[in-house]
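We emphasize that the prediction below concerns an isolated chain of 315 residues; any contacts that depend on oligomerization or on bound cofactors are therefore not represented. The input was used exactly as deposited, without trimming of termini.
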Amino acid sequence: MSISATLPDAVTPTGGARAVAPRRRGLRPAANGLPWILPAIVVVVGLIYFSIGYTGYVSTLDWNGFILTEPTFLGLANFAEMFGDPVFWKALTHTAVFYVVTFTVQTALGFTFAALMHSQVYLRGVYKVVVFVPTVLAPATMAPVFRQIFDADGQLNTLLRAVGLDGLAQTWLAGGTTAMGVVMLATIWQWTGLTFILFYAAMSQIDTEILEAARMDGSGNLRTLWSVVWPMCKGTTVALATLGLIGALKTFDWPYLITKGGPNYATEFLGTYIYHTMLSEKRFGYAAAISVALLVLALACGVFMSLRNRHEGKA
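Result of the prediction step, given as a token string:
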């Protein structure tokens, strides 16, 4: 018996034979992508979306948060109270002012530092570290420092009195305007480093021939920065604006750690107001309603910025 007789071939319609690939044993079919994305699905659906849905449910209740206490269904009464709450609108106004001031100052400082670091500056590496270090420091560790500096008997007033500027010394954290200024200053101090890094990376992508052409046309350094570099960093600016807006809506750490929302709600934000309403007043339903409003505002702002950028990109 020939060897070919032991290996039957598949017969084609034309009578010819075609080779049949040998079947490999012991190998399982390749797994699809579901096992890889399953952990993410569990986290997103089981944790985030469930939490959002549960918060929406709690926002319709009058409940103090204790499991043994029977909640009372209120429907949309918490939202109606929220729209008539002057503290809620004050917190929303503070958020808007906070965003405009911090984003403007951080953008100006970050762009300026990035431009300086791209020039021939001695010890550029050291300056980069100094500017970026505040970004990685936790507010919980630095808030006591700011409280100490701006205390009535703190280092700032001591310095002002030492140089003969006693009239400028004041209780910085006891006044509404100055307390908000301290919170803004702490936020700017922390996040300017991130703005600087992103602008520095954006400037690194600009073709040097474009800058050389601008200089050959007679543009000075400031003119080149304003007319060439700044427009080419537009994408970075838009991204920072979007992140800054969402971050301002979620602001909690600095105002709570420095002023706890005071004095007299002068530094109250949506995040701190939710915290006080939930833990101090034990009004979980009303706090959940404010949380839902915060989520809707964040999503609306994100969608608005995205649509606006897409429209400008097509124009």
